[in-house]
Hints:
Blueprint: E1 9-15, E2 19-25, E3 29-34, H1 37-47, E4 53-58, H2 65-73, E5 77-81, H3 83-92, H4 100-114, H5 124-149, H6 157-186, H7 189-198, H8 206-215, H9 224-230, E6 239-240, E7 243-244, H10 254-270, H11 272-283, H12 288-311
Parallel strand pairs: 1-4, 4-5
Antiparallel strand pairs: 1-2, 2-3, 6-7
Helix pairs in contact: 1-2, 5-6, 5-8, 7-12, 8-10, 10-11, 10-12, 11-12
Amino acid sequence: MTALPVPNRFVGIDVAKAHLDIHLLPKRRSWRIEYTPAALQKLLKDLGEDTSVLVVMEATGGYERLCADTLANAGYAVAVVNPRQARRFAGALGTLAKTDRIDAAMLAQYGAALNPQNRHKPDAERNTLTALMVRRRQLVAMAAMEKQRADPKHIDDHARQSIARVGAFLDSEIADLDAQITNTIAQHPAWRVLSSALQKVKGVGPRTTVALLTQMPELGTLGRRQLAALAGLAPVNRDSGTSRGRRFTQGGRTNLKTALYMAALSAARHNPDLKTFYAKLKEAGKPAKVALIAVARKLLIILNAIARNTLKPA
């Protein structure tokens, strides 16, 4: 990956539901604004027309999107970073206190010290697909909880009838979301073709495909090691001196990693090549979970190659 130029100003933004705390380096200026479209437009004026600035904020479950999109569309470089990495950076600086103002200053320092290379790219269609998938995941979790409450041995009949009605409603809503997700993909020319190509691989279904479309826009553009690291499927070394620790995976994009792991479970049973690969790992003494992670990683490499060939300009 080519290194991006180092900006001459750095802005850290701590995102809350109702307000934004902002810190600007090298001026060391801190201030707070309301989190509204009008206030964001004023922020653009305050930052000025010189866009040689890097804005750093944490991923906050979607709350950061409006701010990130507004700044990126105005020409500013925006990095949305993993909160865990930002907190570790703060710890390395000896910053133990945590307030919105302190977090904003820390994020500005993070940008100045590390110049994170991931740049936010506004994508309204992917945002819509992501929102639909997140909502579906929420409703599936709610439906599972309702089913757990329906034990006839411990629940009154009247309560069980209510649970059944709610469960039926949730199933209907999930089906509606599935239809919206399918329609959204079908209306996007590139996604429609890519989704069809990916699902030709045994073990890969609609849920895995949607996870890849929403959480790995880099698919088909990066090398296998980079993708494995992004998905949290790359083994991490734990070596020191002559000691060689066990390798294990950590981090990555959680929901994507889960989707690939579930796809690997299916592929290890039904995909001839990956089934053989899994069997060889087991014969070599690898634990089942380690072997499945390896299958998930190999599956991702296969899907990356398919995406590269599918999206390649004619």
